[in-house]
Amino acid sequence: MNELPGMQGAWTRRQLIRRGSALAAVGVAMPSILAACGSDTKSSSDTKSSSDTTAGGSVTTGVASAGAGVSGSEAESLAVFDPTAPKGSPSPHAKILGFPNPFDAELFLRISDIFDQVASERGGDFVTAISDGDPAKLVEHLDSFMAQDAGVLFLTPIEEEATKPGSQKAVEGGVCVFGVFRGFASLQVVEDQYAIGYSQGKAAVKWIKDTLGGEAEVAYFNEDMSASIRPRHDGVLAALAEGGDGIKVVSDVQVELTTEAGASAMNTILQAHPDVKVAMGGSGVIAGVYAAFDALGRTKEADLYLSSIAGGDDALDLIAQGTIYRATFGEPWYMWAYALAQFSFDWMEGKSIPRVISAPGGLKEISTPEDATAFKDAMSDPAATWNDPALRDSYISMYGNINYDTRDLYWLDAVTKLPS
């Protein structure tokens, strides 16, 4: 990682992410191009938009009309991504990929490692900082990366309302934004969050009926700090309710997406509800839940069930070993991260990138040693997975085309449904 303007000496990524407040102090004065929001940029009247009702609710997916000033209601259908689309103008911004990281979670740290590696290989820079769940710090980090003229930004769905104004300012200033959130983005990662939650809940119900006779106390760790992920919560509860009166959700809480927070919360829950048999949530939190049961010497109990979304290597290893960590719904984030990093530098060089990416067919349940091993192998070397067309296409679908010259075709709100 090279030295950036305003930084005294080069920092490694691991040093940098521990210095979030120091990085934010670099300064937040925006380059002049980011302030240019006049007649050459869009307003809400310069868009095509459509109401897209999904299992997660009704949202608006707006697509700017490339400066044509077209308004009205028109649903857009995107073609499959064409990697041979003509090259356009390179981005005038610095060859920097920025990631304001909301939590010191293993998923985000591994994504940062992949971004850093690709940036080095492509002759660019990667900057990141951890805000530890503080929305104000997250915004400071986002602003500081834009002040350093980063050409591409990656934004998670955490504290998305806080980062939405920054994402708008970025895309209107020609910065490429990768979004997993309800905001402004050049490229959207699309997942049906309700379906993800419903699948997780249905898998738990099946296990409860097969193993516990249809009766269990359940602890659920929701991720309602994100409006985009909130439908996942509804999906889980709907599936559990369909399982019958014997399934009781005795705890439904939101905690930081870290192992430490998950362990602490589970210890508290077990004091009030010692008979909890099932715990579900996101990857980092459930790693902490497992640690809490492990500390109590309970990881071999046959009547306990833990499941997560986006399980990392630890989750996959524990599933393969036949522990109480019985399932994860694997988001192929490490391969996606590799793809996004490559798209970052493609964009900055003027090449065309997709406007939407997703997992083909939705997230798949990983609950057997064979599935866990296969998924772990594919994610352990994302470059190899990406470069194997058959394997790559089993983990990523890509739609639409956008480059710097067509940058006005950004999304105005979350895309929650694949193009028809």
Descriptive report:
This protein has about 425 residues and is α/β, with parallel strands linked by helices. The chain has 2 domains: about 220 residues, Response regulator (Rossmann fold); about 140 residues, Rossmann fold, CATH 3.40.50.2300. About 40% of the residues lie in helices and about 20% in strands. The strands form 3 sheets. It has a 7-stranded mixed sheet with strand order 5-4-6-7-8-14-16, with helices on both faces. A 6-stranded mixed sheet has the order 10-9-11-12-13-15, sandwiched between helices. α3 packs parallel to α11, α6 runs parallel beside α7 and α10 packs antiparallel against α12. The N terminus is likely disordered.
Which short descriptors sum up this protein?
single chain; alpha/beta; Rossmann fold; 7-stranded mixed β-sheet; 6-stranded mixed β-sheet; 16 strands; globular; disordered N terminus
